[in-house]
Amino acid sequence: DAGVIQSPRHEVTEMGQEVTLRCKLISGHNSLFWYRQTMMRGLELLIYFNNNVPIDDSGMPEDRFSAKMPNASFSTLKIQPSEPRDSAVYFCASSIQGYGNQPQHFGDGTRLSIL
Amino acid sequence: GESVGLHLPTLSVQEGDNSIINCAYSNSASDYFIWYKQESGKGPQFIIDIRSNMDKRQGQRVTVLLNKTVKHLSLQIAATQPGDSAVYFCVEAFSGGYNKLIFGAGTRLAVHP
Question: Which of A52, B16, B31, B36 is most exposed, with minimal Cβ within 10 Å?
Answer without folding.
Answer: B16
